[in-house]
Amino acid sequence: MKKILVVFGCCFCLFILSTSAQVKIIFDTDMESDVDDVGALAMLHSLANNGEAEILGTMVCSLNPWSVPTVDALNTYFQKGDIPIGAVKTLGVYRNSKYAKVIAENFPQDIGIGENSEDAISLYRKILTNQPDSSVVIVTVGYLTNLSNLLKSEPDDINSLNGVELVRQKVKHLVCMGGRYPYTQNPGKWGNFKPDPEAVRYVAANWPGIITFTGGGEFADRIKTGRTPFNYDPDSNPVSKAYKIFLDGWRDWHHSADLIAVYIAVRGYDEFFELNTQGYNHIFEDGTLMWRVRPNNPSHQYVNSLKKGVSEVMVSKVFDDLLVKSIR
């Protein structure tokens, strides 16, 4: 907040003006293999309810037919059922989900299944076309299939610009959750990068703006969230239900990989996190990665550690408080 003192003759008037505006967000998720996607969307709705974010669209990068209606059920639960949903239609990644079908079938949603959603690329192009220049933040917590396809999109009746030109004009920041930094060499097919490595490589090489990569692994495990929604009545809200299904019989907390990305997309990194800006993200053909110091790519940066003096417990409490606000 900015305070301005204005003097009229002998009268002093103090005006308090907000210098912060809502962050215009497009949220891109797989919403199937892990439950932190649910937590991330719940956090985003909480931040939107605070007046800190405006959710322009929710995109699904998974071919799982229950991912889209789960997103719709979550948006509907947060009384934002009119938020448009786009999804990848062909040549995407399919993975099973422990919770998506249950959420889609037990909570109100009217989209049906994923095939009924709009194509993600046309929706991306419509949303971006209608926003001011350099105003949109995209946060992806899933595969990069949609973003790769967006960059490759050609001029059409929506906009005369191609995908790279449109992103350059409208998007000010991409926050990308995936990988583990400074390197990931395990070739197993888990995570967001390895199921569609070609898309990751294309986006990393061709995105015409700043990409902040945020990692998972030990870093995200240290920020333990989910205990609060886990302990709420799972029959009354989809967040608790999803966490209950995913964690029951295992543990009562979960990592915060996707939540970290959403938090940084809206509030920035500076409060809690260290930002590394030197080097570039080298993505190998199998989706593993290594952060290399040279040559420097000024568009690549990553977050994978807390600031000195910031505790995991402190960040976990802030995150869980946002989740609580979202499900009450």
Defining key terms:
single chain, Inosine-uridine Nucleoside N-ribohydrolase, Chain A, 9-stranded mixed β-sheet, 12 helices, disordered N terminus, globular, 3-stranded antiparallel β-sheet, 328 residues
Mean residue pLDDT: 92
Strand content: 15-25%
Give a short account of the largest sheet: 9 strands, mixed
Number of separate helices: 12
Order of helices and strands: EEEHEHEHEHEHHEEHEHHHHEEEEH
Helix coverage percent? 25-40%
What's the gyration radius in Å? Answer: 20 Å
Determine the structural class based on helices, strands and strand pairing. alpha/beta
CATH fourth-tier homologous superfamily: Ribonucleoside hydrolase-like
Strand adjacency order, main sheet: 6-5-4-3-7-8-10-14-11
In total, how many domains does the architecture comprise?
Answer: 1
> In one word, what is the shape?
globular
Total beta strand runs: 14
Which ranges are low-confidence, i.e. pLDDT below 50, for 5 or more consecutive residues?
A: 1-19
Distance between the termini: 27 Å
CATH class: Alpha Beta
